[in-house]
Structure formats: C-alpha cells, structure tokens
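As the work plan foresaw, the team has encoded backbone shapes as discrete tokens. One protein thus recorded appears below exactly as we store it.

:::
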Amino acid sequence: MTTDQRVLIAGCGPVGLFCALLLGRQGIPVRLFDIYDELQADPRAATTHPATLEVLGAAGLVEDMAAVGLTAPTFQFWDRPSGKLVATFDLDLLKNDTKYPIVIQCEQFKTAKIIMERLKELPNVEILFGHQITSFEETADRVIAKVQTKTGEETHEGAWLIGADGGRSTVRKQAGIAFEGFTWAERFLVITTPFDFNAELGYCYRSYFADPDEWCNCFKVAADGPPGLWRLVFPADADMPEEEVMSDEAVHARMQKFFPNPKPYDIVHRNLYTTHQRVAATFRKGRILLAGDSAHVNNSIGGMGLNGGLQDAANLSEKLAQVIAGADDSLLDLYSQQRRTVSIEFVQAQSIANKRQLETKEPEERKKVLEELSSTAADPERARAYLLRSSMLSMQTRAAAITLDEAL
C-alpha cells in the first residue's frame, strides 16, 4: 500500500496508539504525533470493562494487561453514613454473555506501553514525539498538517487525520467542531495511598460510597507491584483555592473524616481535576475523524471514559481500513453516528446517573436509590441486566445496530 493512504494521528495516548495498531496491522501507513517527548505516566483511567476487553482481546492485548494489572470480579456500593454494605455485583453473571466476565484494573499508561511494544513490530507505523499538529488544511484527497517541533515547523501529509489528542483537542478545535455539554460545578480530587482498604476494612477493588455530603470512589491498582495502591476520588468545592484543597492538612482531614484511622495515611499522589460532560457535534468532518476524549468526555464514576475511547478506536479503525481498501466513505459517517449515539445514550447518561445516585441528598430519595441497588443486586436477572449496561456490553450491541438512517 502506498504512502498516499497514510493516516495521520494526533495523540499518543491509548486511543491513538490503539488506532495505529489496528490500522498498521492491516498494512496501512500510519504516522503519530505527540506533543510530549515520551509516553506519559498518566495515572487517571484504570478500569477496563468487559466490552473493552473484547476489542482488546481480539488484538491480543488482554493477557499482558492482566499480567501488569489487577482482576476485579466484583464491585460494591456502600452507604457511608451508616457504614453498611448496600450491594455487591458479581460479573460472573455475565459468563454466558462475554469471554471476559471481569474488570481488569490496568492503569492507562501501562495499556499504552503494551500497545507501544506491539507497534515496534510494524515498520509502516511511525511515532514522532515532541511533535504537535497545530493546524491543517484539506484538499479533495489529502490532509496537509502543520506540525510544531523543537526545531521549527514541519509539514506532513496524509489521506486522513484522526484527532485523539484529548479533551482540549487541537484537531477538534481547528476543524471547527463544537464540543457540546456542560462542566460540573465541583472538581474531582484524587488521593492515592498504599493503605490496604481490602485487608483493613473489607472493601473490594472497586467500591462506591454514597454520601449526601461527600461521596467517594475507592479502587485499587497494581502500580509497580504488590502491595499496590488505592485511589480515592472525592468531590471538591470549585470555589476553594487549589492550594487549600491540595494541602496536607486538607487531604489528611478529608481521609480521616471518611475513613477514620489511628495512624496518618501515607499519601503518595494527589491531583485535582475540572470535570466535564461533553460530546462533539460530529466525530467526522471531511477527512478529519475524532476518537476518545477528543470526541467525548465525562465524569470518572463508573470508569467509562477511556473504555469508550478504545471502543471508538476499534470501530473507527475497522471502517477506515475498509474505506482505504475502496469502500464508500459513508462508512465513516456511520462510525460517527454509531459512536456519537452511544456516547450520549450510554456514556453520558450512565456516568451522570452514577454521580447522581452517590450524591443524592433528600432522605427519602436516598433510601429509594439504595433499596433499588440492593434489590437489583439480590435478583440474578435484574443484576445481569444492570451489569450488561455497566460493563458496556449493551452499549456495544446498541452501536452495532445503528444505521445511517437512524436520526440522532
């Protein structure tokens, strides 16, 4: 295949790398650009749902992810004020629905490294670190990109350009694609500690705490190996100065308020995020395509963001490869229709609902939410239906059924 069919990709996160792997394995020339000088050890996303494990498994990546991550077969909901366990959901209920009735907790930088190792086997894939696409223009059959490097500006050409360059995507902005939605009033504070919440308090590797004053997500990652690390996510007042939210005094006070401990916690990492719920107006505009955070962002409760991005990559790469092989490029409109629809109907709707059920304040409404979770988990059929949605399997089924004739 000639370089006339080269695909340019902005962003060397897991989504951009996965697109490159899937396209590169089909002999398509690919060139990736990333503003940083190396892969970033970004500690954010870790949860990999069954639906995503299916597309990663088809690419031969799951075994390596399991080796450097943690397997989480269950997740729990707790009522923080009473300390009571509300519900436990066991993904084994999905054993007849998927090859992967588990979640793998694998930090996104580890996933990126695993994919990068595979890319080294593909001479048709180039990775240019320290290169940022700053602008581009389209012709009838080309995309001509201006790329800023440390030594000056370069020009690179390709047949297609994929924007996988994050929530602040330069590609999306330069393409003039609106990013529709809203920003949450509160920020999300992430605190990381080696304290073993499973051994000490009985919490499983994915635990969600409902609290009318201050909800919390608590989950474990493998980090550099045993004993691993636990990450806790709390809401933080948007009006409080960042230095105050992030101070040792405030962080330790928050931990002790939520999980009283006679000893001070060892805090190894902390971060503060502004959180958005947004979806691009289209995922395809001419020869410009969007995937991952460039196309959609959401709050992290339920771990659906990166999962949705990796599923974008699988869908887009399959269709783009067919177009490059001669299929009608309306397939790329179908990609946009399918992935944008499920981003709205599932990722946005579910992540917003996840946040609402943890933060509900009115006593009767809280009681109803918690009773519903408890009764759902206790009924295998209802629990399976719940898990099909939370695992994103029903989202993938929905996406596959969408046609271009379906109005969004």
